[in-house]
Amino acid sequence: MCSDDSADMMTVTYLVGLSTVMCSVLWFIYHNREVSYRSALNLTVSRRQNQLYTSKGFDLQRWETLVQEANALRNEIKNIASEYDVDWQEHLDEHDETVVQALKQERETKNNQKDDEEEKEQKE
């Protein structure tokens, strides 16, 4: 049924696959990394991402802090809403005209403050 050539190819294919897996596991062990797709992705992509973040002036730690603060605020709002027996749905508030106007006003205020600070720095 199988010729000698196909049997040899199956053996070679098996051994190449097995050695690839073994080398990968040893590499992860040597670098003290978790053996997972996410870990490999983070390792290979993180260097390039950090270079891009740095070149564009993006502060990753500040971003993570802002995300944590936003999550804390969401939890606080949910807790307050549950105390008043209200079902708060964030996605509905995102499109509410009152909320949109308040956010626009807040952004304009912050932008004006930044502009004022930049003008003061330039005068000095």
Structural write-up:
The chain has 124 residues and is an all-alpha fold. The protein has a domain of 58 residues. 83% of the residues lie in helices and 0% in strands. It has five helices and no strands. It is elongated and about 80 Å long.
Give the rounded overall mean pLDDT.
81
Q: What is the beta-strand fraction?
A: under 5%
Write down how many β-strands occur, each being a DSSP E stretch of 2 or more residues.
Answer: 0
Q: Rg from C-alpha positions?
A: 27 Å
Characterize the biggest β-sheet: none
Helical fraction: over 70%
Low-confidence stretches: none
Order of helices and strands: HHHHH
Euclidean distance between termini CA atoms: 89 Å
Q: Number of helical segments? A: 5
* Class by SSE composition: mainly alpha
Strand and helix layout:
Elements: H1 4-30, H2 37-56, H3 60-83, H4 90-94, H5 97-123
Short description:
With 124 residues, the protein is mainly alpha-helical. Helices cover 83% and strands 0% of the residues.
What key attributes describe this structure?
124 residues; mainly alpha; 83% helix
